[in-house]
Write a structure and sequence with these properties.
Layout: H1 3-22, H2 25-47, H3 56-78, H4 84-109, H5 115-133, H6 136-155, H7 160-188
Helix pairs in contact: 2-3, 2-7, 4-5, 5-6, 5-7, 6-7
Length: 189
């Protein structure tokens, strides 16, 4: 391999790694929109004394899972290279979802409102993803999940569906939009 070919390979690998960092905007925007709708739906249904006020959560979970799975499968076919960092993100978020499901089941068994605790849990993969990417809006979003979760537990439990929606806005949607912008800039370059 010539020095020129080596440089081209390194440049190509760096471009591939950069692109894989920012392809996550879809997932933050998808889950942000669905979870914000579920949070608002729960709040308003609860205000109207609807006994199944929580019904939006499993619906968006299934819908989001299907959409994310289909999108991920399509992207996987397009992607030529899977980096170590891609695998770290995949396993981090898979472990998060598995723990999330276990926690929701346990909270339901004990009739706890899982929202504030889910915010605390969600802060972890959001913060770590942002730190690995060196993308401060996600790091900040992870911290805000923790702060809003704790404030909800101690001061605003009756508004947990609304505070969850705010946490999703600042932790997923705003950083997701910023990631999308960087993604578009990468594609334009």
């Amino acid at each position: 391999m010539t020095p020129q070919q080596s440089m081209e390979l390194i440049t190509e690998m760096i471009a591939s790694a950069k692109q894989s960092f920012f392809k996550m905007s879809f997932y933050f925007l998808l889950w942000g929109a669905l979870l914000a709708l579920a949070g608002l739906g729960q709040y308003f249904l609860k205000q109207s004394d609807f006994s199944l006020h929580w019904i939006g959560w499993p619906i968006v979970g299934v819908v989001g899972g299907i959409i994310a799975g289909v999108h991920g499968a399509r992207e996987g076919k397009k992607t030529q290279v899977s980096t170590f960092t891609d695998r770290v993100y995949m396993w981090l978020w898979m472990a998060f979802v598995f723990t999330l499901v276990l926690f929701i089941v346990a909270a339901g068994k004990h009739e706890l409102d899982p929202g504030p605790y889910i915010m605390l849990l969600t802060g972890l993969p959001t913060f770590v993803t942002g730190a690995i990417m060196k993308f401060r809006p996600l790091v900040f979003g992870g911290v805000l999940f923790w702060v809003i979760g704790m404030l909800t537990i101690f001061f605003m439990m009756e508004y947990s569906a609304l505070t969850f929606t705010v946490a999703i806005l600042v932790g997923y949607i705003i950083p997701g939009l910023m990631l999308r912008k960087k993604e578009n800039e990468l594609h334009a370059a």
